[in-house]
Design a protein that fits this description.
2 copies of one chain form a homodimer. By secondary structure, the first copy, chain A, is an alpha+beta fold. Chain A has a single domain, classed as 3-Layer(aba) Sandwich (Trna Endonuclease, Chain: A, domain 1), CATH 3.40.1350. Chain A is built from 5 helices and 10 strands. In chain A, the strands form 3 sheets. A 6-stranded mixed β-sheet of chain A has the order 1-4-5-7-8-10, with helices on both faces. The longest helix of chain A has 14 residues. Chain A is globular, with a radius of gyration of 18 Å. At the A-B interface, strand 3, strand 4, strand 5 and helix 2 of A face strand 3, strand 4, strand 5 and helix 2 of B.
Chain lengths: 190, 190
């Protein structure tokens, strides 16, 4: 957790840095960012727990049940959701090592259908995609993503297409991934 | 899963029945209800996975990692959230065996603070409380809950107060707990 000197104090936004300087993965950056939004009462957005199937639980001491057999489940929804400026927020975050494209199979079909559905019901829904080798992180709205899959018979999204159709999230210190700034300047722009 | 004869067909709403006839707990009823909302494309609301801390994972076969040590975590948010009519929905559901009151310690302080926060950011936030012995299920908006805790120095909410300040959700067959009907007639009434 980052110690903010005083709440609502202007924070320093830095230029994008080599990822080796940061040592944080996308999930950690997003957790810090969401905590920052909570601390400053800007939004309430959380990562959902990892979906698992619990098979066996031991109760050696009643106060601390121990799960001894469980399996990861394929997620049917997204990893992150919450509320911002009276709108539901719902997104999935993915990292790739590629320098040229984002492979579509990184996202499960159920997750895409989920994002389409929540957007239809009024949520702001998007993907956050980080190219770790390039140190570039993009916000791609779900409608643009669907537009891509409808118009291209490809198994991956080229980075050049993303540079045209998604929004680069500049890296900053506090918070690391200030994606709500992109939402403000695009979704809430009018 | 219930097999709906045809989508959007009118469904039969029945009178409240003794719970012995039903054999379903609140979580099962809510899962069926949320699935019904999804199937009819009315709303997109899900139960979040149970929050756990994973300590040890075995990888006997790479395709099926086995969690061999994990513990339940105290939830810091609510169990259910999603989106309905362009609003974020966020709620917690609890059952009690009591016939007279709902014990406040059933809800963690962090969950109350979370519900206050999301309501402030614009979510529709509430508790669903079922008195299993009475077969009565209530929807209590978070602002009413806070009002109760601010004005009463009690460790439980008497059922008579709930009957005045919360909304009884009638039991129906499909869906079992049609809580969005209450939201429609109260939150979206004007």
């Amino acid at each position: 957790m980052i110690g903010y000197p005083t709440k609502r104090k202007a924070y320093i936004q830095t230029e994008s840095k080599p990822s080796t300087k940061r040592g944080m993965n996308l999930e950690e950056d997003l957790n810090l960012t969401n905590q920052y939004y909570l601390d400053l009462d800007m939004a309430n957005i959380h990562k959902k727990p990892t979906p698992i199937t619990i098979v066996k639980v031991d109760y050696p001491i009643r106060s601390k049940s121990k799960i001894t057999e469980a399996y990861f489940k394929i997620p049917s929804t997204t990893d992150y959701n919450g509320v911002y400026k009276h709108r539901a927020i719902d997104f999935e975050a993915k990292e790739t090592q590629s320098k040229t494209s984002f492979t579509l199979s990184n996202i499960h079909l159920h997750q895409i259908q989920h994002m389409e559905s929540v957007a239809k019901h009024g949520a702001i829904s998007f993907l956050i995609i980080r190219f770790t080798s390039l140190d570039e992180t993009y916000l791609l709205y779900i409608d643009k993503f669907i537009e891509f899959t409808n118009n291209h018979n490809r198994k991956s999204i080229p980075i050049d297409w993303l540079r045209q159709n998604a929004y680069l999230i500049p890296y900053s210190l506090t918070p690391p991934i200030h994606y709500l700034k992109i939402i403000d300047s695009t979704y809430f722009k009018e």
